[in-house]
Amino acid sequence: MKKFELKRLPGRNGRRNWFRCNQRGVSISARVHFDFVWLSSIRVHTTRGQGLGTKVMGDLIAWAIMRNKGVRLLAEADHKCNQRRLERWYRRLGFRKHRETREFVYELSS
């Protein structure tokens, strides 16, 4: 199986520190900050329900942990998935919802 890798996007037009990964029928767009990775989008391009998104998210979390970073995101459902189901999925992956910002945050254990 192919190793998980985020590829840096070209550094012009405000894309500094933006990365993309297209793997296993799933694409991720993320921005890497000093202490966290901001997940901008995740899209499953193949049949849903096969665990592909979960696998790639697990790879992203492992990638961030290896670099001593957390992961943050705003969960916004598209037309194929309802919001409650999406939020449950992120919670199962270990994210928690921040009350004030409504961001989902995956933090490193101290």
| Derived structural class | alpha+beta
Distance between the terminal alpha carbons, to the nearest Å?
A: 31 Å
Q: Tell me, rounded to a whole number, the average pLDDT.
A: 83
CATH class: Alpha Beta
- The helical percent reads 10-25%
The radius of gyration is 14 Å
- CATH homology-level superfamily: Gcn5-related N-acetyltransferase (GNAT)
Number of domains: 1
Named CATH architecture? 3-Layer(aba) Sandwich
Percent strand equals: 25-35%
User: What's the shape?
Assistant: globular
Number of helices in the DSSP assignment: 2
Low-confidence stretches: none
- CATH structural fold name: Aminopeptidase
In which order are the strands of the major sheet placed? 1-2-3-4-5-7-6
Order of helices and strands: EEEEHEHEE
* Number of beta strands: 7
Major beta-sheet overview: 7 strands, mixed
Structure, described:
- This protein has two helices and seven strands, in the order E-E-E-E-H-E-H-E-E.
- The protein has helices at residues 52-66, 83-92; strands spanning 7-8, 18-23, 26-32, 36-44, 70-73, 96-97, 104-106.
- It has a seven-stranded mixed sheet, with helices on one face.
- It has one domain (7-106): Gcn5-related N-acetyltransferase (GNAT) (Aminopeptidase), CATH 3.40.630.
- It has 110 residues and is of the alpha+beta class.
- The termini are far apart.
What is the topological layout?
Layout: E1 7-8, E2 18-23, E3 26-32, E4 36-44, H1 52-66, E5 70-73, H2 83-92, E6 96-97, E7 104-106
Parallel strand pairs: 4-5
Antiparallel strand pairs: 1-2, 2-3, 3-4, 5-7, 6-7
Outline of the structure:
With 110 residues, the protein is of the alpha+beta class. It has two helices and seven strands, in the order ββββαβαββ.
